[in-house]
Amino acid sequence: MALHQATASAPVNIACIKYWGKRDTKLILPTNSSLSVTLDQDHLRSTTTSRADPSFERDRLWLNGVEEEIKDGGRTATCIAELKRLRREEVEDKQPNEPKLSTYAVHIASYNNFPTAAGLASSASGFAALVSSLAQLYSLPVSPSTLSLIARQGSGSACRSLYGGFVAWDQGSNPTGIDSLAREVAPQSHWPDIHALICVVSDDKKGTSSTSGMQRTVETSELLQHRINHVVPQRLKAIEEAILKKDFDSFAQITMADSNQFHAVALDTEPPIFYLNDVSRAIIALIVEYNRVSVAAGRGRRAAYTYDAGPNAVIYTLKENVKEIVELVVKYFPQREGSFKDVFELFAGVDVAATEGKVVEG
Ligand code: DP6
Q1: CB-side exposure of 350: number of CA atoms within 13 Å?
Q2: Euclidean distance between CA atoms 43 and 297, whole angstroms
Q3: Where is the Mvd1 C-terminal domain (predicted)?
Q4: Fewer Cβ in 10 A, N or C end of the chain?
């Protein structure tokens, strides 16, 4: 009897150029390209184990030990179906002696190693790990960018977690989505000094989800059209250049401008969406002042804030500034209930997935 099982993990990523808006909600095709930094595997990752067995009656999924329903035609079902199709086409049809794993149901268990207190969404690392673990289980001879096409259909931002380092998600133009995939801009080793600080302002789950919020923005915001057509393309080019040149001042300027515009577009939505709170705005003011002093001293910007669909700040900075910034944040935001919870220091950009795949003969 063979045991067909594989485990893989994938890290969280935080966008510098935000994805916000879909042109196809089923295939998850974005209205603009985006770019992110993949965070440290050791601190923030999802780890997923998948097993295929002829005795399993149906596909099942557990998240942090709690079973979740796999809805027909839903995002998880789509990812599983796509990977089974690849198993059939790439392995079983070509090598008839391989076991017909695509015909077995799968059981999938996924865990996050980050506390819910980190206040971070887990869909990016979660779907990236799910897709990686099934790809290993099925011994698929495919590249991370092919896997990113599938992870994208789980959650848009998940496609960027298939790579470590600095990652672009090219929006593509083909209606099938075949060219809407992740691309490595530079590996983590290119610029290992970049660190990320996560300032947990609130770990509440309340608010508008990314999925429904961005759909409302697409339907109602005029500013989004300006962003898509006249801002993001130039910004992407400029930030890629900044990354390749290790120009932190430009990287910071673009990252903060894009976070600001993303929240402006949320505010331009009908009804408006507010993701930042007073503490988030006070952290912005602190970083602006920190950079003002730094620029005046001829050192350029040394920190960049960015916010996703919630009030928690991620601050990118170079390693040499981490201690100073943590001290500032803790000084101005003494940790107390309702104001500011915690600050996590993370090293950005470690390469993806120390993975382990196995087929055990038993
Ligand atoms: C603000 O990837 O969570 O974090 O594709 O609907 O699952 P779905 O949305 P999701 O949106 C992420 C939005 C963001 C920006 C970003 O990560 O680029």
Answers
A1: 16
A2: 34
A3: 196-362
A4: C
Q: Give the number of the atom of ligand 1 that is nearest the alpha carbon of residue 152.
A: 5
Q: Which two tokens stand for residue 83?
A: 């990977």
Contacts for 94 with CB less than 8 Å, ≥ 6 apart: none
Rg (CA), the chain: 21
Report the atom number in ligand 1 closest to the C-alpha of 18: 18
Phi, psi (deg, nearest 5) at residue 345? -95, 130
User: Among residues 193, 202, 181, which one has the least CA distance to residue 277?
Assistant: 202
CA of 105 to the centre of ligand 1 (A): 29
User: Mind giving me the DSSP string for 166-200?
Assistant: EEEE-----TT-TT--EEEEE-GGGSTTEEEEEEE
Query: What does the alpha-carbon distance between residue 299 and residue 295 come to, in Å, rounded to a whole number?
Result: 5
Per DSSP, 311 falls in state S
Entry pTM: 0.92
347 has pLDDT over 90: no
* Euclidean distance between CA atoms 309 and 259, whole angstroms: 10
Strands 34-38 and 303-307: unpaired
Q: Which residue is closest in CA terms to ligand 1's atom 1?
A: 308
Atom of ligand 1 nearest to the CA of 17: 18
Q: Are 198 and 346 in contact (CB under 8 A)?
A: yes
Q: What's the mean per-residue pLDDT of the chain? A: 90
Ligand 1 binding site (Cβ under 6 Å of any ligand atom): 15, 18-20, 28, 34, 121, 123, 155-157, 210-211, 308-309
Locate the DSSP E strands across 83-149: 105-112
Q: Which helix (H) or strand (E) holds 358?
A: strand 356-361
Q: 239 — phi, psi (to 5°)?
A: -75, -35
